[in-house]
Backbone:
């Protein structure tokens, strides 16, 4: 006998097949749409066959007598979460996108949990078995999902703390936090009394502390130089300064950033206010650096002066208007670099210069120029 | 009489046995022939990429190392094979009793540990010494930037006044170096990993995008040396060749002077002048000729970055001063002129190379075929309908659909580039 559940899926299969045939005849037999409809038909047939084989999973039919005496499970709170998600989605549509995105996540999470809970409730008349069935079905999603949320929370609040602290304090904070985690890990591994409830307490205290400190840091705002840099639009390339630094709020430890030091074609120095260069493989100082066109090439800048300096590459001018009357200077520069510190500049220049003197390296405030040749 | 006892079936059985015997003879003879051919190939003297014929200091360091390690490895190999063969023959199961079994002989174990350790120590000492000698760049006398791309090599010579290079030189296909000079190649790549290898002058060195790897070459005598990209780099990897030509210092100075000449436009009204116009109309999209000017007098700057995946195409300035084109896959010289240069003595090769390609020596067949339909000559990703993966850019030269008249004009023009 064909069960009621399987009828729906077999119906879906038949309709999908008809739709697929019509689509192939009327639209395009090799189109993705035809593949999708045939896939839908195949899925319907598979699920229909499974429903037929399991008699629609109708356990109540066999357990009616037991069910009469069964105790109902506790009420589910997932509908509330689902409703909260829906509310957040609607609110987010009218306010900010973050609320909308979070609402989608809550809506999906709540919906899945609610569906699984409901399914498990009807799995049998045995409440304990239903709990087991629910855990079995949802654990594979719940644990990774929960872990992702916890990691996201940790990463977010850690980032708030680092943005609020100065570079030096941030380093100290990171070392202290990492050492504490390491010590707690050792304790948990080697001291059995630390396991169980104690571990949970430590984890909860750590997370609450982090959330508290992170919230405080977020409310305090980013450290001053970052706030000013954002306000002055330092991050916009069109506003980048390649001359004398006018703002006091810039990264004074740019040298600590990751640099591509292993493959530089040349090193440009500034010492006693004079610029000079050394090219890889050439023992004497050079006044010309040659780099291949259309290839990313790195040049290292090393400041040997007391004063903070930066390297600027001048790449000629570009026409701004159609007539060419208005031109803008082309080029880029490194960050300001302190004494005995260095920065890498990576260049990709696709075409040779029309004028041999067109491209050059300079250091504002220092004398001398290194010609840049792109053959 | 049973079926198997019939005279007919015994003849058939004999036939099968004879066939099996003859097949096994054929297989044995084939294996012996292949082995013999491989063995004899090692005796070839005219082998431009033979690793046993060093022509410079760096290759000599590798060769010296080979002469230490190969005999040692050979002796060890022969001993191991002989011992394995003896064991195989001696202990094959012929129904004899199982030999007496013993577990652990400390003296044998110690000897079998110490001997390989000693061998490896000796090999290690010589190998590390060789590696450090090859890595030395302290006393470099000349620097050349070498950039690999699918499927050709570009050479650019930075300004080095002590070598007479007062303006940068750019070339492709053939590396030109002065004899007896410690030349440092700064290798990189514009697209994928390639590997530069001219066996007569040094070992291999990978050219890696975003990195600069160093390789030192030095040639003892003037001569031409063949090489091959040795890192699989795509469709035409096998066609990515290179040649190095070592010239005497005087000849190298002449070559440098020739490469730094100003561009001379062909005389008006000549086919070459018309070819220049075709070049400006078609080829300039990717190929640069330094000094070439557009009709309005402004410099003609190629834009391979807009058309080619690697962002570059060979600079064709002084093309006819080279002997090859298309990534050294094809000769610009016809067969007899080519053999004349390759077969020249160290004393005469410089003059022959510097003569470049003349009208009578030009390999017009391959050059015209290349201009007619380049992808048919060398496999490349140059089908305009299949460029989705490279963002609409070619890997290699596409078929430009040039007419025969345009090709005539272009050949006439290219012949003037020397």
Residues:
């Amino acid at each position: 006998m064909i069960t009621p559940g399987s009828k729906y899926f077999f119906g879906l299969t038949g309709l999908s097949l008809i739709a697929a045939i019509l689509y192939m005849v009327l639209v395009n037999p090799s189109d993705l749409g035809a593949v999708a409809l045939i896939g839908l038909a195949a899925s319907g047939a598979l699920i229909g066959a499974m429903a037929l084989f399991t008699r629609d999973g109708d356990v109540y039919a066999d357990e009616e007598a037991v069910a009469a005496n069964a105790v109902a499970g506790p009420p589910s709170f997932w509908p509330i979460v689902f409703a909260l998600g829906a509310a957040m989605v609607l609110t987010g549509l009218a306010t900010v996108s973050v609320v909308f995105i979070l609402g989608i996540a809550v809506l999906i999470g709540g919906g899945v949990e609610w569906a699984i809970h409901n399914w498990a409730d009807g799995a049998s008349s045995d409440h304990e078995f239903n709990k087991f069935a629910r855990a079995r079905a949802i654990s594979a999603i719940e644990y990774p999902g929960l872990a992702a949320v916890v990691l996201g929370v940790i990463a977010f609040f850690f980032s708030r703390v680092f943005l609020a602290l100065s570079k030096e304090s941030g380093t100290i904070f990171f070392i202290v936090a990492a050492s504490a985690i390491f010590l707690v890990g050792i304790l948990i591994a080697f001291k059995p009394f630390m396991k169980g409830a104690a571990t949970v307490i430590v984890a909860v205290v750590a997370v609450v502390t982090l959330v508290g400190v992170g919230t405080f840091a977020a409310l305090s705002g980013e450290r001053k130089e970052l706030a000013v840099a954002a306000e002055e639009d330092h991050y916009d390339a069109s506003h980048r300064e390649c001359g004398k630094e006018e703002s006091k709020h810039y990264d004074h430890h740019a040298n600590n950033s990751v640099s591509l030091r292993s493959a530089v074609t040349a090193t440009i120095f500034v010492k006693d206010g004079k610029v000079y260069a050394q090219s890889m493989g050439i023992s004497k100082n050079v006044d010309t650096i040659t780099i291949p066109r259309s290839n990313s090439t790195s040049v290292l800048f090393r400041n040997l002066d007391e004063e903070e300096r930066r390297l600027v590459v001048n790449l000629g001018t570009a026409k701004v208007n159609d007539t060419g009357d208005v031109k803008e200077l082309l080029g880029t520069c490194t960050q300001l670099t302190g004494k005995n510190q260095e920065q890498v500049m990576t260049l990709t220049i696709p075409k040779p210069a029309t004028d041999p003197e067109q491209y050059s390296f300079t250091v504002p405030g220092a004398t001398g120029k290194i010609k840049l040749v792109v053959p | 009489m049973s079926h198997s006892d019939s005279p007919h079936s015994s003849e058939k059985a004999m036939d099968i046995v004879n066939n099996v015997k003859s097949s096994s003879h054929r297989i044995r003879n084939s294996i012996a022939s292949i082995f013999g051919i491989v063995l004899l190939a090692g005796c070839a003297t005219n082998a431009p990429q033979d690793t046993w014929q060093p022509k410079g200091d760096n290759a000599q360091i590798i060769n010296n190392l080979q002469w230490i390690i190969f005999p040692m490895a050979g002796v060890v190999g022969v001993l191991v094979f002989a011992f394995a063969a003896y064991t195989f023959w001696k202990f094959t199961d012929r129904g004899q009793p199982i030999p007496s079994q013993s577990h652990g002989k400390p003296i044998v174990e110690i000897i079998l540990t110490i001997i390989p350790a000693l061998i490896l120590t000796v090999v290690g000492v010589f190998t590390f010494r060789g590696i450090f000698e090859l890595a030395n760049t302290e006393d470099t006398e000349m620097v050349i930037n070498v950039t690999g791309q699918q499927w050709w090599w570009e050479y650019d010579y930075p300004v080095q006044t002590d070598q007479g290079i007062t303006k940068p030189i750019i070339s492709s296909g053939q590396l030109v170096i002065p004899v007896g000079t410690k030349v440092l190649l700064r290798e990189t790549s514009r697209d994928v990993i390639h590997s530069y290898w001219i066996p007569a002058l040094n070992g291999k060195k990978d050219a890696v995008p975003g990195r600069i790897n160093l390789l030192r070459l030095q040639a003892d005598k003037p001569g031409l040396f063949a090489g091959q990209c040795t890192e699989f780099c795509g469709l035409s990897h096998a066609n990515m060749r290179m040649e190095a030509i070592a010239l005497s210092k005087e000849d190298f100075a002449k070559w440098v002077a020739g490469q730094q000449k100003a561009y001379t436009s062909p005389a008006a009204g000549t086919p070459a002048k018309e070819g220049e116009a075709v070049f400006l109309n078609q080829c300039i999209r990717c190929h640069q000729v330094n000094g070439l000017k557009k009709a309005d007098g402004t410099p003609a700057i190629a834009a391979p970055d807009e058309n080619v995946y690697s962002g570059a195409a060979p600079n064709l300035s002084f093309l006819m001063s080279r002997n090859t084109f298309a990534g050294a896959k094809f000769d610009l010289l016809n067969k007899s002129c080519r053999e004349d240069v390759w077969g020249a003595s160290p004393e005469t090769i410089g003059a022959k190379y510097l003569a470049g390609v003349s009208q009578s020596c030009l390999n017009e067949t391959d050059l015209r075929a290349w201009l007619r339909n380049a992808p048919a000559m060398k496999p490349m990703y140059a089908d305009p309908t299949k460029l989705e993966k490279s963002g609409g850019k070619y890997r290699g030269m596409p078929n430009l659909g040039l007419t025969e008249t345009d090709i005539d004009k272009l050949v006439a023009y290219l012949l003037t580039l020397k």
Chain A has three domains: 1-58, 127-220, 250-373.
